[in-house]
Amino acid sequence: MPDLICLSHLRWDFVFQRPQHLLTRFAQHGRVFFLEEPVFDPIDSPYLELSPREDGLTVAVPHLPHGLAAEQVETIQRTLLDEMLQSQSITRYMSWYYTPMALSFSAHLAPLLTVYDCMDELSAFKFAPPRLQQLEQELFERADLVFTGGQSLYEAKREKHPSVHAFPSSIDKAHFAQALKPQQQPHDQASIPSPRLGFFGVIDERLDIVLLQALAEARPDWQLVLVGPVVKIDPALLPQLPNIHYLGGKSYNELPAYLSGWDVALLPFAINESTAFISPTKTPEYLAAGKPVVSTPIRDVVRPYGDEGLVHIAATASEFVDAVEKALTQIGDPVWSGKVEGFLKNMSWDETWRQMVQQIARVAQLKVK
User: Fold this and answer.
1) 8 A C-beta contact, residue 35 and residue 102
2) Separation of alpha carbons 151 and 230, rounded Å
3) What are phi and psi of 340, to 5 degrees?
């Protein structure tokens, strides 16, 4: 395969999610350069830090001086990108975008193919740049393929490009199935009593903190365990109760051990603009770990997980309490476990990646003709 240049708003080392699952697979067949957003340092001259990771994958981080105007930031990133292409002998490559904002310094590139893997409705997120929607429209015009991270996002984007394809969140079943067997409990979770209701993921404006507080107050005998970094919101605003435990960010490899100690897994997302199109990767991950799941009515969780009877859906705090009580009785239910196993049978990041490559090959052949 040609080289792949990924332009991302996410940090490679932040949370192991969709980009990491897909790009590590691409890196098995060709070089991948993962270009992050700039880091601003007390330096005089900008430079690009290249950090080799998995076989064939390199993380590229622009380091820029403080105090630059927006136009200067874009110009320097364009220069650093061009220098990377030259120094790494990148001549045949595919551009892979996670953020339309990167188009502001990469529009001059001449890739063999351009892919927009639209995993979120970024314009609805807190602190979204004003130019994002305009640049996304430009990216639609340039892209050869558009992939979406869920069905709802596909429905929102399918009229904006002639080749949009839904690739909802997938799963590394073997990794999370480790939680089906007893694991040594992490030191910061071992002393927390049961029953434990757990959540892992980024803790930001998408989380319903009012619901969390109401749930903790309604059932002080339930322990709420939240694993993940707090970003874009003031940690002081998070509910502070004796039965709510914030354990901070953990590595991808640590997650099964935490999951193994939970009785019920939670998707306590707020219903707002920032969650209208999300397709939580953690839904199938929780299920592969054998955990009953309770979620607020996120559309891509209701369809298909709620409709298939795999996940409990609750819209209010009182409904959430009732749903958790039902979920607690579901532990070890062979009928439910069989339904979960059947649903997840053909889901894998390998299969998602394979189908994406098929689409890329199809479009590449059309461009050659």
Assistant:
1) yes
2) 27
3) -60, -45
Of 37, 36, 28, 26, the C-alpha closest to 4 is 26
| Predicted TM-score of the model (pTM) | 0.90
Contact 92, 112 (CB under 8 A): yes
Pick the closest to residue 151 from 282, 300, 338, 288 (CA basis).
300
The pLDDT of residue 175 is 97
Q: Which element (helix H / strand E) includes 310? A: none
The pLDDT value recorded for residue 128 is 73
pLDDT digits (tens, 9 = 90+) for 97-139: 999 999 999 999 999 999 999 998 887 776 678 889 999 999 9
Distance separating alpha carbons of residues 121 and 9, to the nearest angstrom: 13
Whether the CB-CB separation of 247 and 227 falls below 8 Å is answered with yes
Q: Determine contact, residues 234/361, Cβ cutoff 8 Å.
A: no
Burial label for 329, CB within 10 Å (0-12, 13-18, 19+), is exposed
| pLDDT reading at 369 higher than 70 | no
- Please give the average per-residue pLDDT across 149-175, as a whole number: 93
Contact (CB, 8 A) for 304 and 284 = no
Instruction: Report the residue count for the chain.
Output: 369
